[in-house]
Structures are given as C-alpha cells and as structure tokens.
Amino acid sequence: MIYIFALISIIIAFSGYALAEAEENKETPKQLEEIVVSATREAELLKEKAQTINAVKGEEIKNVKPTHPSEIMNRIPGVWINTTAGEGHITAIRQPLTTNPVYLFLEDGIPIRSTGFFNHNALYEVNIPGAQRIEVIKGPGTALYGSDAIGGTINVMTRPSPLKPEIEINPEWGEHNWYRILASGGNTWGDNGFRLDLNTTHSDGWRERSGYDRQSVTLRWDRVINGSATAKTVIAFSNIDQQTGGSNGLTKADFESKPWYNYQTFDFRKVKAFRISTEIEKEIENNILFSFIPYFRWNEMDLLPGWGIFQSGANYFGYHSNTRFYSLGLLAKYRQDFKPLRTRLVAGVDIDYSPGDYFERRIQAYKTGDKYTSYSYYVTNTDNNYDFNAVFFGISPYAQLEFSPLNKLRMTAGARYDNLSYDYKTLLDPNTNRPADTDRTFNHLSPKLGLTYDFSKSISAFISYNHAFRVPSSGDLFRGNSGTASTAVNLKPIKVDSYETGIRGNVGSVFTYNASVYYMVKRDDIVSYSPQTGVTQRLNAGKTEHKGVEIGAGIQPLKEIELSSSFSYALHKYKEYRVSSTTDYSGKEMATAPRAIVNTRLNYKPSFLRGGSTEFEWVRLGRYWMDDANTEQYSGHDLFNLRASYNISKEWGLYAKVINLFDRLYAERASKSGSDSQFAPGSPRIFFAGLTYRWGGK
C-alpha cells in the first residue's frame, strides 16, 4: 500500500503541473483564497495546510436549516453521520461507523467534552443550525490536537456579534408534531458586542419511542481591549430530554412490515451541558501573538437505553446509568513569525482537569409479547452494578514549525507530548466486572510532518504524515462486563500512523475541486466484541487498516445553477484481530463500514424566487458488512431530499423541505450479533416548513 500511496502522490503532482499549465493560459476572475481556522485556532490560508480540511459555510447552514447534524455534515466528502434518536448520532470519518472515542468535537476550537468522558453524541450539545461555520479536519489532527483526533476533528464555530442591531426569528413546523423556534439577535456598543442564540425544539417522533425535546442558549460577548487585544467569551447551555427508541433495532420482518414499531416502552436519555470559555488574544508588532483560553465545563447524563436490554436465559436485563463530570481547563498558545523563509513558530500547552463519577444499576426488564413493558432494579445480584469516581488529568505541550524553503513550497513539522492520567476509586467492592482502585498514566509523543506546493494561484497539493494516539475512556477502562474487569482496566491506547496526499483548486469561479488519498494503520485499536446479543466487551485488536479516496467538486456554469458532489471510497479491514483461540477476524472487513458514500446537490436560484432557491439532493450509502465475521451484508440505500425557499420581502421569507422524498425504506444502521440481525429504521418521507424574519444587521 505504501508503494501505491507513493505512486498516487506522483500522479497528483504531475496532474497539478498539467492543470497549472492549462490555468496559466486562461484569464479568470480573481478568486478570494479560502481561509480556515481550525488548524492552529487562527485564520490561515487553506492552501498552506498539509491535510484535508473541509468547511460548511454559514450561508449553506442557513439554507439547509438542518433538523439533525447529519443533514449538513454528510455533504462533506467521506463523512457519514447517522441518526440515532432525536439529534443523537454516530460518526464515520475515515473509520467505520463507531461509538468509539476516535473523534474530537470542538466549539470554537475548545473540546466540547473531556477526553476521559467521551460521548459519541457530542454534536447534540451544540446549536448546529445557529453556527457560523463548521470545519472538519480529516484524520489525525495537527500538533494542537491530541487524543480523540484520530478519525477526524469537527469544529463548530459560533456566530460573532453583529456590528449593528439585528434580530432573527425562525419558527418551523413539521410532521409528527415537530416544531422548532430559532432566534438570534445582538448589537455592538463601542468596544463590546453581544449575540444571543436560542433553540427550542420538540418532536413526538415518527417512530414509537423516538420523541425528544431540547432547549439551547448561546451567549457570545466580543470585546476589543485597548485596541491591541481581543476577548471572546462564549456561554452555552443545552437541555436534552429524549427517548432512545430511534436507535433500537428491529428484526428484518418487522423492519420491512412495520418500521415505526418499537420493542421498548420506557427508555430515555436526559442530558444537561454547560460550557463557558474566554479567549484572550494579544498581538505584538504584527508578528507575535499570545492566546489564552481558560474554560469550564459541566455535564450530566441520565440514561436508560432500550438498545442495552438483552436476554440471559429466560430473563431480560439492561442498565440505568448516571454520568457526571466537570472540567477546568486552559488552552495556551504562543505564535511568532520570522521574515526568513516566512517562518512561523506555534507552541503551547493544553491542560484539562476533569473529575467525574459514574453510577449504574442493573435492571430486570419484563416482556409482554415482543414488547418490554416494565422494569425493576435487579437486587438479587449486584455484580453488574457500578459506582466509581475517576479524575482525568491531562497536560500536553506542543510545538509546530512552518517555513517556506522555496516560494511555492511550504513545510510543516510539529510534535505533541501527551501526559494523561486517571485516578480511579470504586465505591463498591471490586469483582470480576469492577476493578479495584487504581491509577493509569499514559505518555506519548506524536510527530507530524507535511508539505504543500502551489502549482499556480489556483492549484495546490500536499502530502503529510501524522502520528496520533488515543487513550481509553473511563468507560472503557473501569466498566468491565462478563468478567472482563482485569482486561478492561489494562486496555492499551490506540496508536495511529496516517499518510495522506491531496490536491485542491479551482478553474475561475466556475469549477472547484479537492481530492485526497489516505492510508492509515491503527495498532491496538479498541473494538467492541459481542459474544451474544446485548453483551459487549472492549478489546484491543492487534492492527486495523484504513485506506480510501475522497473527492469533492462543484460547478457553477451559470449564476443561477450550481452542481456540487462529494464522493468517497474506503476499505476498513482487520489486519490482526484474534478474539480467542477459535475466533480470528484477521483479514475481514470491519462491520458497518460502507465502501462508497456519495452526496450530490443541484441548486437552482431563479430570479422569481427573489433570492430564494431550490435544491435537489441525492444521498447514496453503499453496502457494508453487518458483523465482523462478514456473514451478512446491508445492501445500502439511495435517498432523495428536496428544499425550496422564497423571499417575500427583505425581512420575510418562506421555505419548505421534504426529507426522503420518495419514501424509501432504509436502515440508519444494520448490525448482526450472534445469529440476530437488527435493523434500525430510517425516517419515512417527512415534510417541514418554516418562516424567517430578519430585522436590522448589515
């Protein structure tokens, strides 16, 4: 594979020269060079970043008005975010669809959750439809990002304070008693600007046990200090109360005949999340910048999942858990520019102190027919109960150097050293599921290397190598089951070597494109093994391999018409994974890992819509294996969505959209455990409509 990677790198280089030669002979309108923020937490040219960074801009977020993060995120090449329940989700970026802690979720560059208390649903704690911009860094992050940033980093950016008084109100209605009100407003007075964003959403859900409520508020305060420094304070709170039935699987027969059905009647997830941060930046003589971001997080989740119920003998069991943690942290950065070779040095340190506690009780569920109708706490045996405290502490210095030995060549070299630890104490007697009090410490150095080359003003290419690692989360280490306490607490961290090359550019204002090829090897990958339905064990797989190609393109032949498409083809395999003396998955493809993912949009903006537009979207998800043994496949699906908007006046607008236009039956996730195949059905055709009002602003 390394030889193939090198060959593709050469092909991309020659392609760049060929395209550059063609471009030099054309006169094209001057293009604004794209700027990204996530790589170093400040604005930089995308063409000088030696990695794939894709962005969804504020205008597109406003046009889509996503009712779920997947509606906007799945437009990015190689990104598949599915819908579980409410706004819950599972993510696949250069990895199979997984709940494992291999993604870093940020808000304005600050981790939404602590490394020690990862949750795959982190995006529901952020007001996605109110975002200014979303950037996705594919693969291991830069030296500024450590553990978690393996498959990708998602950075959701809040909207800045408006310079003039501004009010926006957006009520929306939909089927199944869906309603949402988005509101935003603010102003700037002198050196101080404020913006307040609100989001209140309710849905009964199209499926039994899939209703949810959420309330979110974000307050941003932007301040200029003495004309030479800035401060940005963001306060965010979300309250989420949802049923978890949307992610519960059905048998194939029920999936095909009554996808609205659910076997659970009492499952729930309740989340409260609060964050506050202040970013202070001071620039000196235009070449030195100091940045300090102290932050505080508090999070609580009360969970009784329907998907956690399983059969043991003639009885049925599940669990009810409560997780709480708070964080005190600091992101400190120093940046200095030097004239020789346009050199830039970025150095800093990240500190995260996050004490948390976890409480879990086993429940016994009772069944009438095929429905679980009630439950009680199981007191006959408490071996599967948990009550522990875990303090996560991390201190991670890093340094990154960028320089240009040639005018068109930009090189980057960096490293990050992570010192991460847990101090764990159980409040129950240790047993084969609960480890005794212990400390775990992980130390690791992660180097990063990359270079970019400008073939012309509109074409650039890059190649990079990134090493990364991910420590097990507190749930991985200290919550064993089926007698795995001794193995869980000794889980090794994931170690990753990632190689990537790519090209990006444009042909005037008509055609834009980006393409990348990656090859990633993970050692000691932490995977889930299910010896029986409802029982999951966490194990280190010896080695997994991930390779693929991602392409994004957009063409706008006329001012009114734009065609955009994203495509990815990937292969995720176990290179070495022997579960037991009788079970060996080496050489098998990993479960829930579609090879092909396609998203294509045709946008039409005729003058009679007065600034509005229509969009037709095609979403293609390829087939994938439902189990690691590769015994059954989900065939994939094609979905179509339609959106339209019309501006009544400068202040008022109308819009409508249809999700799953042709009412196709499909699964959000299909899996197989033992001999049981389960299909979590996706939503049928659903209509939404809304009204927008905007006053003031620019």
- Structural class call reads mainly beta
Q: Span between N and C termini?
A: 52 Å
Task: Report the average pLDDT across residues.
Answer: 93
Q: Helix count? A: 6
Overall number of domains: 1
Radius of gyration: 25 Å
The CATH architecture category equals: Beta Barrel
Report the strand count. Answer: 37
Low-confidence stretches: 1-31
Bin the helical content. Answer: under 10%
| Residue share in β-strands | over 45%
Question: How would the global form be characterised?
Answer: globular
- CATH topology name, in short, is Maltoporin, Chain A
CATH class: Mainly Beta
Main beta sheet: strand number and arrangement?
A: 22 strands, antiparallel, barrel
Give the name of the CATH superfamily: TonB-dependent receptor, beta-barrel domain
Structure description:
By secondary structure, the chain is mainly beta. Helices cover 7% and strands 58% of the residues. The chain has six helices and 37 strands. Strand 4 and strand 5 form a beta hairpin. The N terminus is likely disordered.
